[in-house]
Amino acid sequence: MRKSILLLSGMLMSMNVFAQLTVSTTPENKKALLEEFTGIYCTFCPDGHLRAQTLKNTHGANFWMVNVHVGGYAAPTAGDPDFRTPFGTAISGQTGLTGYPAGTVNRKVFAGLGQAANATAMGRGNWSNATNQVLAQSAYANIAVEAQVDDQTRQLRVITKYHYTANGAAANKLNVALLQNNVEGPQTGMTANPTSVMVNGKYRHQHMLRHLLTGQWGVDVPSTTLGSTDTDTFYYTIPASLNNIAYELGNLEVVAFIAEGQQEVINTSGANVTVVNHAVALDGGILQMEAIDDVCPGSGSADPWVKIKNNGAAPLTSVGFTYSVNGGTPATYTWTGNLAYSQVAYVSLPVLNFSSVASNTYNVAITTVNGSADPVATNNSTSDAFNLATETTKSNITIKITLDGWGGETSWTLKNSAGVTVSSNPTYTSLQNTSTNPQADINLILPNDCYTFQINDSYGDGMCCTYGNGSYAVWADGVLIPGMTGAQFTSSDNKKFAVNASATAVEEAVVNNLRMFPNPTSSEVNLNFENTVDEAVIRVSDIQGRIVISQNISNVNFHKMDVSQLANGLYTVTINADGKITTEKLSVLK
């Protein structure tokens, strides 16, 4: 038996001894290797990820995946992460792919399934068929692999062992790919794979190619005749990051495969990387806290999530928290679960009520891990600052929606402080798939209250910028309410604002001893002023705050207003006459 050692980076360090790696010497069928070509801007790639994971769930250890971020859909823009590697372009370049997502199964051509003639690349609808064909074929070589990484030196050691149960092709190559799971990042169309959507609005990327320990096309297999057996050991000192994407040691995986040259894969196997020689035995830390929205004046409440991580060797089974706002009486909460090394969890803290002030701070800290004090306390606390909702002294509100190229994905709601929807637009279905950027405005007259505006994108990629420069904005009397605008988000965006029209210098009083009659009415209503008004603006709004009638009058003391087009119901009539404002309720009954 030959043992070769390939030192790719760093010096050999002492590591735990592996169990004796064995490989089957009995002829077996092939295992399937899906190399999936994907990108963060690829609309249908999440559906490809879901289909691939379904195949993995079905076939288990007989099916392995390598996700290669490559091509235009993987090229980052606007500060998005770069998940590409130096190896992806060459791998995809030999597949004949014509669209994304694409995938090869064992780098083999399947009659009638390729995206082009003689192409190994297939659309996602054909991966299952190709996988079933591969799994029914006999392999002339079997392969096994295991790997471990030292937590303190970051040195990875991978051992592969293969055995030929029949004579193979002369030019075989051994390949070892290093993958990373649970990489959070953006993804267009993420809702097609909902199990990978995170509570922070990001997408969990799996089986992501990070490095090829054996180079672009592998290393030579010296003997491919019946009975040949070999063990190879590879070392690689894992850097802190690749393209500024951190390597998380507890999320690593290796896939090894034997290929005929650069093409057809004869057999494959994989394994999770075991972490040894941990730096600490027990350590739970807070990585991130959900940003708290601005709150309404008066009593506030918040129930943010915090992202925790296990940095120690022992599984985290419980984490105790304290949390408070503005130094008030702290609340406590204990999370329970089972979190392995390097894994993360999102913990939703119970609702905390508090009295809001102009500037607020929410503090949260870990107090215990696994029932005792955390030995490493430097990563146990975080905070978030938030303010009162922006206030406007104007009650004439305009919601301006500039749609992107997929207007049918956009919907929004406006709720008052009681959580009641006062206005909404379910979807802009008539503007689906538009290439321009139409505007859809709605005018409202809102009573004094605090309001939450939530805009949604059903596809999870916001309103800007890949498919058009959409945006939203909320205006008051033609002036943008500060902070009430946005465009780039994932599935939803929330903003708050308060209307406090009584804070204006305009007197709110009965205008000229106004009489409004008849009330209820079926068709028209009379407005009778005691004295002639120079200028007046009349607006009628429905119970959702939408303006249904808007009229300007001048130099009159009597005005007849036609309301015959209005449906039965209760309406608000707002009159601004010569600098004075009054409101009246009008009942339309036919």
Structure description:
- This protein is mainly β and 590 residues long.
- It has 4 domains: 275 residues, Immunoglobulin-like, CATH 2.60.40.10; 104 residues, Sandwich (Immunoglobulin-like); 113 residues, Immunoglobulin-like (Sandwich); 74 residues, Immunoglobulin-like, CATH 2.60.40.3080.
- The strands form 11 sheets. Strands 1, 7, 8, 9, 12, 13, 14, 17 and 18 form a 9-stranded mixed beta sheet that branches. The chain has a 5-stranded mixed beta sheet with strand order 28-36-33-30-31, with no helix packed on it. Strands 37, 38, 39, 40 and 41 form a 5-stranded antiparallel beta sheet that branches.
- Strand 15 and strand 16 form a beta hairpin.
- The N terminus is likely disordered.
The outline comes out as elongated
Structural class: mainly beta
What ranges have pLDDT less than 50 throughout 5 or more consecutive residues? 1-17, 503-509
Overall mean pLDDT score? Answer: 90
What CATH architecture label of the largest domain applies? Sandwich
Query: What's the helix count?
Result: 3
Report the C-alpha radius of gyration, rounded: 32 Å
Q: Ends: how far apart?
A: 96 Å
Largest sheet properties: 9 strands, mixed
Strand content: over 45%
